[in-house]
Amino acid sequence: MCKEFVVYEGAQFTVEWYYDAAGKSDAFDYFKDLEEGQQTRFLFLVKRLADAGKIHNKEQFRNEGDKIFAFKPQPDRFLCCFQQGRKVIITNAFCKKQQKLPPKEKQRALERTKDYEQRVSLGKYYDA
Prior knowledge:
This protein has helices at residues 26-33, 36-52, 103-121, and strands at residues 6-9, 14-17, 61-65, 68-71, 76-83, 87-95. A hairpin with a 3-residue loop joins β5 and β6. 27% of the residues are buried. The protein is globular, with a radius of gyration of 14 Å. It has one domain: RelE-like (YaeB-like fold), CATH 3.30.2310. By secondary structure, the chain is of the alpha+beta class. It has a six-stranded mixed β-sheet. It contains three helices and six strands, in the order ββααββββα.
């Protein structure tokens, strides 16, 4: 199986999907299951961040605390983290059903960030 890590490579950041040790990316799977219009809204935000380096509108991109950020193409959420090498790693995605970020989704993003960092430091992330 060939993994598609890169979502978009811009002037400021490269945005990538997170893959677990088994080679699965549920965020990428979630994206592929979206309708074309929803995919376009998400990719517009990714391109803006990757090219410009910032999205000033908190209705579209927000710091959720603990170094976790969220792309917010309504009604979906794509959680991510910034990494060395000017990378943004999309850790998980879900459909927003309530006002606040569900704690389990934030926890999942934190766990995947830690897993990504550990596997990269061991040289096991991109070669797996």
